[in-house]
Amino acid sequence: MTIASATPYCSHGAHCQTCSLSSLCLPVALKTGELDHFDAIIKRRPPLATGDCLFRQGDHFSNVYAIRSGSLKQVNFDHAGNEQITHFFLPGELVGFDGIDDGYHTGYAHAMEKTCICEIPFSHLETLAERIPQLRSQLFRSMSREMKEDHRLIRLLSCKTADERIAGFLINLAVRFQRCGHSSKTYRLPMTRTDISNHLGLALETVSRVLKRFRDNHLVAIRGRDVQILQPQLLYELAENGSP
Question: For the whole model, what pTM was predicted?
Fold first, then answer.
């Protein structure tokens, strides 16, 4: 069984023209000449190691970031020090939109594995977007996708059972892995079960118990972090309707 990984080869010499994820990222909207100019403003940062922090809660906002490989989680802390994992970001997705409103990031972005990032200065991005309507539209689509993720999480936490939350989480990951060119049925979880339980508002023991029930019912096969979705339609129906 071939498992989709969020961590392909990470090259410091990568360019937008040759990036396999350009169809997901902002450069999809640009013509050749515009793409060269866009490529010139991007900073390819050294790879983040597992646990490294891309930005911290309260940091000044100046960039958005595109994930070339690897994955990030965003963690927010309230005034009482309670931790909530609000987002998981996969290859081809943009990170950092939370800072646009008041100029400060609202959470910590941590690498869950070796992760390669393209840093895009937001002031340059705004200037280009004013000149290139297609880029502006792609930027809005990226923002809209993140808003949909927020709404999905609110719906999961407010009105779904543990089984429905975890089924929805697995299906959502499958769709996003497929979007970035991987299999929608076999993939490797970049996050721990503790991360999943925090994100979904469940006890760790509940997550383990539900995953075991999914295995026993032959909905999924799971070994460590390797996931194979055996019956995607039934899992989707469970996520949406509460029963397959």
Answer: 0.84
Percentage of the chain modeled with pLDDT above 70: 85
**CA 186 – CA 222 distance, rounded (Å):** 10
Q: Is the pLDDT of residue 182 over 90?
A: no
* DSSP symbols for 53-114: EEE-TTPBP-EEEEEEES-EEEEEE-TT--EEEEEEE-TT-EE-GGGTTTSB-SSEEEESSS
Mean pLDDT of the chain: 86
Q: Is 188 in the same domain as 116?
A: no
More confident residue, 50 or 128: 50
Mean pLDDT of 200-221: 96
Quote the Cα angle for 22-26-31, to 5°: 75
- The alpha carbon torsion through 168, 224, 226, 83 (nearest 10 deg) reads 40
Same domain, 180 and 149: no
Same domain, 33 and 134: yes
Smallest CA-to-CA distance from 120 within 185, 57, 54 is with: 54
Q: Which CATH number is 208's domain given?
A: 1.10.10.10
How many residues are recorded in the chain? Answer: 244
Using pLDDT thresholds of 50, 70 and 90, give the confidence band for residue 26: low
Asked whether residue 192 falls in the same domain as residue 99, the answer is no
Domain edge (last residue) among 156, 188, 218: 156
Centroid of chain to Cα 218: 27
